[in-house]
Amino acid sequence: MLRSDVKARARDSAGLASTELDDELNRMVDDTLLEMHRHSNWPWNDADTNVTIRGDAVMTCTWALAATVVTTVSGEPAAGLLPEYVGGMIQLNGANTYKITSWAAGTIGISAEIIDATQAAATAAIAIQDVITMPSSVESVEEVIDQLTPRKLRDTSEKRRNRLYPNPFNHIGVDPAEWWTYGSDAAGNVELVIFPPATSDRNLRITYRQTPTLPTADNDDLLVVTGIPVKFHPVITAGLKYRMYQFEFENQATMGAALLEYREGLADMKKWAKTDAGKVHALKTRHSRPLTRGRGPVMGFQTGKIDT
Prior knowledge:
By secondary structure, this protein is an alpha+beta fold. It has helices spanning about 5-15, 20-40, 80-85, 155-160, 220-225, 235-250, 250-275, 275-285; strands at about 45-55, 55-65, 70-75, 90, 95-105, 105-110, 120-130, 130-135, 140-145, 150, 155, 180-185, 190-195, 200-210, 290-295, 295. It has three domains: about 5-40 and about 230-275, no CATH class; about 45-50 and about 130-210, no CATH class; about 55-130.
């Protein structure tokens, strides 16, 4: 169904002309889709991506007291990888730690804190990618899997809000075990911390909930743009009719009937998402659980019941 089809059905129900309230209906379609998104974690909003995190880079560098840059002498990663370390951290001479704000060949810019020690001779410095910036379409992160092990990393976002962040340089050499949301960057993109930091490049599979995509033209196909199955497009129409009656008419009975139709449609969508779509989702993601016998996992030949 196109956006124009939804608008036409809403107009027909109210006896409006084919071009009447066009701008208002466009906004109402957006409002309806955003409200539907807010009502539940719909399966069509789930997505995943592969992200490569870079391992620690041990280099020889020099720096000066009160400077905000570090000069690399040797051991610098390939030029194409340098931007991926921006937002991460660097530790100078095993002591002070700074955030990397820029990295061009030979020069590392650090955060606003000025360097409080000087080192004219070459000395060791370790840089790590401490923060992963997710794409702008990511609304919230649901699961992170280290594909080298492979294993699911623990989500410790809630715990991290109540205690200090650990020093990542004290834990280099241990496989990554957990992740938490660091916050967001200046553009509003979600940032993740993987802990402990990896000593070598790791490929992560990240499952996330994406922000809804809204139609921008009347000939936009709502299935293609939003991912909402065609059988639920009448729910969009019902939500649009309710908003239109609320905006244009004072007939409370008609508006109430449209609201009831909309709410019943949302209830049907939630039921479908938990049953039909939920079963498929469980086979593909973290919800799958292993065969068990009694309390523990079955070793060897599987003769126990399926633990659901």
